[in-house]
Amino acid sequence: MKRFPSIKSNVDFQHCYRIGRSCANSCFVMYVIDNHLSFNRLGISCSKKVGNSVVRHGIARKLREIFRLHKEIVLGKDIILVVRQKGKDCSYFDFEKAYLELCSRHHIIDREE
To answer: Span of the secretion signal (predicted)?
Structure first.
């Protein structure tokens, strides 16, 4: 099984928070920064304010699946999604719509595909 390209270390998260560009909507905040790699990486931050571990893990699974399915993102980016409290009430389709909206606001969608 292929490993999911994720951001795990605190140093990478802090670097993206400090230097990366951010855009937000009602579901989450998206930080984007160049990673100088040949692939994209995803980091998900979901606070205990959002809900218990079952709720948070369900949200993280939805966001990872959305990231996996939408390959039209320009390569070489680190993307961090910080889930807001309203995120616990969002469905998969709400997250997908919000994700694509923020990707277009960051201008990281590859229009050639």
So the answer is: none
